[in-house]
Design brief:
Length: about 210
C-alpha cells in the first residue's frame, strides 16, 4: 500500500506478526484474545484513528475467533472493518461458515509470510475500492440532475450485473455478443453519470430501477 495501514492483530501468540508487519510499513496493535480485541475496538475513536484490517486467529482463550467475528460484524462501528482469519484448521466447511459470518479471507497456519502479505494487500485494495465507490455514489445520490431513462435491455443488463454476472455470462443469457454487452454498459454509465459497475448498480437500486 502507498500509505501506512493500521492493523489489529488478535492472536494469543502474536509475536511473529507483531515483529514482522512493521518491517513492511504496517502500524500494528495487539490483542491476545477476542475479549481484549473488542475492548480495544470499543475504546478507539475509529472515525479519527481507524483500523484498516483485523488479523483474527480462530483458536484463542476466553473468546474464540468465530465469536469475536460475530461480535465485530454485529457492531455498527466495526462491521465494515476487513477481517482475515488465521486458522490451523484446514476444514472447508468451517471456512465457508466463516465467510458467511463475514470473514473477508482465510489463511491457514503455518503460513509463508509473502503469502500473508499478498492477501493483506489484496483485502486492503478491495476495501479502498469499495470506499472510493461509496464516496462517489454518495455524491451521485446528492445530485439533483435528471437521469436519462434506461432502455428495457439496459435494465436487463444492469440487473444481471447486480447478480454478479460477468460480460460473457450476460451475453450468453441475453443471446448477444460480448461487444453488445459492453456497448450497453457504456450507455448505462453515460446515462447514470457513473464510472464503475458498482456505482451503476448502487444508483440504480437507489432509484428503484432494479431489484437485487
Amino acid at each position: 500500500m502507498s500509505q501506512i495501514a493500521r492493523i489489529l492483530i488478535v492472536d494469543d501468540n502474536p509475536k511473529y506478526l507483531q515483529d514482522a508487519l512493521p518491517m513492511y510499513g504496517y502500524e500494528v496493535s495487539v490483542a491476545t484474545d477476542g475479549v481484549q480485541a473488542l475492548k480495544i475496538l470499543s475504546k478507539t475513536n475509529l472515525s479519527k484513528n481507524p483500523f484498516e484490517l483485523i488479523l483474527l486467529d480462530v483458536m484463542m482463550p476466553n473468546m474464540n475467533g468465530w465469536d469475536t467475528l460475530k461480535s465485530i460484524r454485529s457492531n455498527e462501528k466495526t462491521k465494515h472493518i476487513p477481517i482475515i482469519m488465521l486458522t490451523a484448521i484446514n476444514e472447508e466447511q468451517k471456512m465457508v461458515s466463516g465467510l458467511k459470518i463475514g470473514a473477508d479471507d482465510y489463511i491457514v497456519k503455518p503460513f509463508v509470510l509473502p503469502n500473508l502479505l499478498a492477501r493483506i494487500e489484496a483485502v486492503l485494495r478491495r476495501s479502498l475500492w469499495q470506499k472510493n465507490d461509496a464516496k462517489a455514489t454518495d455524491l451521485l445520490f446528492a445530485s439533483d440532475e435528471p437521469v436519462e431513462p434506461l432502455t428495457l435491455r439496459e435494465i436487463e443488463v444492469l440487473t444481471l450485473v447486480a447478480q454478479g454476472a460477468n460480460n460473457q455470462t450476460i451475453a450468453d443469457k441475453l443471446f448477444v455478443k460480448q461487444v453488445t454487452v459492453k456497448t450497453h454498459l457504456n450507455s448505462i454509465f453515460k446515462k447514470l453519470k457513473v464510472t464503475s459497475r458498482t456505482q451503476a448498480v448502487l444508483l440504480a437500486m437507489q432509484m428503484n430501477l432494479i431489484n437485487k
